[in-house]
Amino acid sequence: MRDAIRLGLAEAATVGALPAAAGELGGAVEVERPGNPEHGDLATNLALRLARPLRMAPPQIGAALAAGLNALADRDPAFPILRAAVAGPGFVNLVVRDAALERRTMAALERPADWGRTPAGPSPRHVNVEFVSANPTGPLTVGNARGAFVGDLLARVLEAGGQRVTREYYFNDSGTQVRNLGASVLAIRHHQPLPEDGYHGDYVADLAGALPGDLAGVAGLSDAGREEREWAVGRWASERIRAGIEASLAVLGVHFDAWTTEGSLHAEGWVEQAIERLRAGGHLYDQDGALWFRSTALGDDKDRVLIRANGQPTYFAADVGYLVQKFSRGFDHLIFVWGADHHGTVARVRNAAAAMGYDKAAVEMILTGWVRFVRDGVEISMSKRAGTFITLDELLGDLGADAARWYFASRGANVNMDVDIELARRQSSENPVYYVQYAHARIASILRKAADSGLTRARSVSGLLAGPEEGRLARVVVRFPEVVEDAATAQETHAITTYATELATAFHAFYRDARVVDPAEPERSAGRLALVEAARITLANALGLLGISAPESM
RNA sequence: GCGCCCGUAGCUCAGUGGAUAGAGCGUCAGGUUGCGGACCUGAAGGUCGUGGGUUCGAGUCCCGCCGGGCGCGCCA
Fold first, then answer.
1. CB < 7 A to strand B: residues 187-246, chain A
2. Is the CB of A491 under 7 A from strand B?
């Protein structure tokens, strides 16, 4: 459609209605759907956009563009636009030819698996999306959940947009918190008091119960032996928790392609390599016995320590090593899904990437907004260490994965929100996701009914869309690929949920006005069955893109 | 104090500088002797936090202020 408008612009330039330069300016054609149906199927504000560069009044440009489009429509019966007209301050309203709608509807029916997906192209961008990355010292909480939803939805929408995605989970398997966890498990196992800053949750007791005897040892070890044992138990517990996290995420439909540990970045020399790169570029200096990165030279508020005076690398050093590790794996673009509290680290990591010679624009952080869980208007404070938290498993048990996914998919990643647990439980049945799923189930039911009546789907929808009810539904169905493409560009999913709701509404209205299964009218039924199947495929793909099921009945 | 994010209908949220600011939920009033009533039709409800500025045009961009959140470690 955008191409068609560019052709119209070129046509106007060719016949001299617009300056010759106009033909070159169609790059950023914007097509939108008018709020008012009387304005046609589509509208473009191109004439308003071109007013400045062309130094002409928008209505004048619009009239020329409309004339160009109409000339093409008259000349070429296959031109997707039937007619164009300028209106208001310079909008060009477009009516789409039925044949063009029918072609796109057929595309959904002929290749349902591809419908809505942007073709990948010969060398798709390969994106690394790192998310969740909670350290395995306790089960995933609802606090971690935001990142899980946002990251997975982002990965899915990028894939649908034709990009290659690797989902990655980063965690620390060697920090003092691991030893602390081990000490906590051992303390409970041996009925001793928990260490200061120990972990208190029920899951720690569960781990203590499950701890194999040879690891548990005997109580009252000497201090030297105790430390070693705490580390060993910590590593055991940590891996067990990590596996539990993996299982929780699997229930959500979230799977990772790579699990990377902070320890491996040091052990495999990535941190060292990063430091050498920075040193070679003159970005490092020694002060007070520590090794610093001159981040201020690139606009940060302060310089950052990479190696402490005691010789230990900082967490930031691992981040920098991780950049080298990821880029050396061949990714074109790195996305980090972080909680909003990490915004202070964005600048330094991106600066380090630039200092090492990578493209700063290829390192992107998406900061998720805060989710405050409240009960009766009072925030529920959560602490993993104190053992007071709501787990992701509990949330899913209450809401179900589909409702939870929809909830997060329909909101921007960076907005803060309050979730009232009780309200969410009560309202889960009001979740719009069921409205959309219901439309899908209703169509599935119709298709079953049709099969029982011996009716079959038409092989072509040619001529079908002349019916006003059919036309209205088809006009929504055919928008799907552009909705997906735009969502992938924006890296947001709420356009998908909004669209899916609109399509469900359009179908429900169609259902009211047009009987599909009618043995007395087999031919008309066949055509409508094809259209309704196209709508079903679209609903299923929209839901599938969000990781939500499309039930045949409910 | 400095920096970043947020402020849109009663609630939860959409809204690439463009036409009359939208949706769901909630509220109110209606609708089915037909393929699934988890549905449909309609109504009420808005100083887009606030004051300036840029622009032919601002919820959107810029500046100030108010309110909320988060950061500002040789922690992770």
1. none
2. no
Per-residue pLDDT of A447-457, as tens digits, reads: 999 999 999 99
Number of domains in chain A: 4
Residue A141, domain member (yes or no):
yes
Domain of A58, CATH number, reads 3.30.1360.70
Q: Is A534 found in the same domain as A485?
A: yes
pLDDT digits (tens, 9 = 90+) for A504-534: 999 999 999 999 999 999 999 999 999 999 9
Q: Which nucleotides of B are covered by protein (CB under 7 A)?
A: 2-7, 12-16, 18-26, 34-36, 38-41, 56-57, 68-76
CA of A496 to C1' of B14 (A): 11
* Neighbouring C-alpha atoms within 13 Å toward the C-beta of A339: 12
A110-169: per-residue pLDDT in tens? 999 999 999 988 889 999 999 999 999 988 888 788 899 999 999 999 999 999 999 999
The domain in which residue A155 lies consists of 126-170+254-371
Give the domain-ending residue among A217, A252, A287: A252
Residue numbers in A 129-158, CB below 7 Å of strand B: 135
Report yes or no: A322 and A269 within 8 Å, Cβ to Cβ: no
Q: CA of A88 and C1' of B56: distance in angstroms?
A: 13
A296 and A237 together in one domain: no
Closest by alpha carbon to A309, among A285, A290, A336? A290
